[in-house]
Amino acid sequence: MFDRSTPKGRILAAALDCAANSSWAQVSLADIAGEAKVPLGDMRDLFSSKSAIIAELVRAVDREVLSRIDKAPDQEKRDLLFDVVMTRFDVLAPHKAALKSMAQAGGADLALAEPLLTSQHWMLQAAGIDTSGPGGALRVAGLAGIYASVFRTWLEDDDPGQARTMAALDRRLRRGERTLRRAEGVASAVKQFAAAAPAFLRRLGEAARKDGPNREAEREPGRGAEDPKP
Description:
The protein is an all-alpha fold. The protein folds into two domains: 1-48; 59-101 and 112-209. Helix content is 73%, strand content 0%. The protein contains nine helices and no strands. 20% of the residues are buried.
């Protein structure tokens, strides 16, 4: 997954080794540079933070997963997405100890939001699932939530067959599919209403203008005639 002949590849591999052998929270950029045998100045040019290293690790995993996906023409998209995510866990498996250390470091890092969401976008693309427009954004966000939940299960799943992970992923994908259908139904209804609203309001206004004089006449039936004197 990493080209260890390049400084970047050595840094990524060294980061995983450092995280596997000690707490990621305590690992410094200098520690990683030393493990990778890369001058600190080169480290500075390639990665400005540990978050930048994680972001590049995410992209490297994406590339490896995408290279392994072989779509079956008659395979259901949800089943294909299941295979894509499980392939991702297969790619990550040799680095589980390091990933546990990184996960235990805690704290949400906003700098990682974009690469993590981009990763989910490509996992959906690999499964042949559209990610364009508002509906696509819902799918990306939905898969991000599913993956985060199942990832925590995978970290604690010591079964070589990954039975717990597969069961959790299947359950969450089915639930997410139902939720997404409902959300897309609501979004479609709102979109249709928004498209129809201008014409509806215009017709309503025209009807009100036409009906105005008639209603005025109904309110004053004797208007224009002289009242008889007592």
